Amino acid sequence: MTDALPEALVASAFLLDLALGDPRWMPHPVRGIGWFALRIESLMRRSPLPLPVAGITTVIAVVGASAGTAWLLITCATKLHPLGGAAMSIYLLYTTFAVRDLGDHAAAVERALTAGDIEEARSKVSFIVGRDTQEMNAEEIALAATESVAENSVDGVTAPLFYALLLGPVGAIAYKAINTLDSTFGYKNERYLAFGWASAKLDDLANWLPARVTVLFIMFGAAFHKLRVFDIFPAVRMGAKLHASPNAGYPEAAFAGALGVQFGGTRSYGGELHQAPILGVRAVECTPRTIRQSITLMRTTAIIFLLCGIGIRILLTNTTPIEIWIQ
């Protein structure tokens, strides 16, 4: 074991994600977490607990079981062989990153739009957004895909990196459990308003710092690609707090500023029209080129984030043994 091993594990997992993405045939902890969360929900709803308390209990059970399972897998693999522990750590870390998958989904939309196949573009964008896509025109499809890359640049990219570098694979898996709980229960509807409150609030808390720090790294990425760096902070200052989410507005506004476009406007969910806040300082429509630029900016932001995070860890720690992560 070397002092740089934890950083090497995160970097290896990141490269593995860039190379493989998320093959559907491969076992994935996040899918297991989602399945387990639904089982616990079913159990809690049959209990006499008030819904908010049942929701809190579900959060504790799912996050605790996810982190505990990750710790147990790494510990058992390490006891078999130190390289086994390293391999298990890399695998678990790899499953928390979504740089390749996010880029691939958005690129599929861009290719369909460039080819003029509007039906295929609608089909592809439906995989990455929750809004109705059946009647979208080309600009609306490009807007939806670009917004998706911007929004998911935190919970699929920088936030998992943040917790991986700070807390190792157990922390990264715990973060993904929190994120999965929000995706599963964090809806403001009759079924989940009370039960999912704890899931939504914990996700807000977990993403609070990464969302804001990510703006700085989007700026670095924008500067590298000679995008509109000086529009980023005005866009964030004017628009980030208008977003319904306390966190999503930061990366979305930063991307809109960097790309020189405008996010938000009218969109349909389940047949009902909703008005999203306008983000960005330039009233320019999104295009297939905007999608390509957003993918490039997301990937560059992720790489700079990783390199800076590794550098900070090395500067702040004289020794960082793997045992700190698994004990």
TrEMBL record:
One of its GO terms (molecular function) is ABC-type vitamin B12 transporter activity. InterPro entries: Cobalamin_biosynth_CobD/CbiB (IPR004485). Pathway: Cofactor biosynthesis; adenosylcobalamin biosynthesis. GO terms for biological process: cobalamin biosynthetic process. It is found in: Cell membrane. Keywords: Cell membrane, Cobalamin biosynthesis, Membrane, Transmembrane, Transmembrane helix. The chain crosses the membrane at residues 53-74, 297-316. It is a multi-pass membrane protein. The keyword Calcium does not apply. Its main location: membrane. It comes from the Bacteria. One of its GO terms (cellular component) is plasma membrane. Belongs to the CobD/CbiB family. Converts cobyric acid to cobinamide by the addition of aminopropanol on the F carboxylic group. HAMAP family: CobD_CbiB. This is Cobalamin biosynthesis protein CobD. It comes from Chlorobium ferrooxidans DSM 13031.
